[in-house]
Write a structure and sequence with these properties.
This protein has four helices and no strands. By secondary structure, the chain is an all-alpha fold. The termini are far apart.
Length: 103
C-alpha cells in the first residue's frame, strides 16, 4: 500500500499551473503556497515528462506499468498455486481404490 500523499492533487495541479503560466521561479511559487521547493520541482519535472517535453524521465504511465505487471504476476502465481493444489487433490481421488458396494 503506497504512503498517503502529503499534498492534495488540487494543490499540486495549481502549483504546476502557476509555475508554467507565470514563469516565476519554482522556489518563489513554493514559498507562496507553503510547499517544499524540491517537491514542487519534482512535480513540474514529472508534468513536463508526461507532456513529452522531457526525455530524461519516465512518464507517469510508464512508471505505473511495472507496478501493475508485478501485481498481475503475483495474482497469476496465486492462481497457479491453487490450481496445482486442486490437481493434486483430484489426482489422489482418482488413484484411490474404489470399494465395491456390498450386496
Amino acid at each position: 500500500m503506497p504512503a498517503p500523499r502529503k499534498y492534495p492533487d488540487e494543490l499540486r495541479e495549481r502549483a504546476i499551473r502557476e509555475v508554467r503560466s507565470t514563469g516565476r521561479p519554482i522556489a518563489h511559487v513554493a514559498k507562496d503556497l507553503g510547499l517544499h521547493k524540491g517537491a514542487l520541482r519534482g512535480w513540474v519535472r514529472q508534468a513536463e515528462a508526461d507532456r513529452g517535453e522531457r526525455d530524461d524521465r519516465l512518464t507517469s504511465a510508464e512508471q505505473d506499468e511495472p507496478r501493475q505487471l508485478r501485481r498481475e504476476n503475483a495474482e497469476l502465481r496465486r492462481a497457479n498455486e491453487i490450481l496445482k493444489a486442486a490437481s493434486v487433490f483430484f489426482a489422489q481421488e482418482i488413484d484411490r481404490p474404489r470399494k465395491r458396494p456390498s450386496r
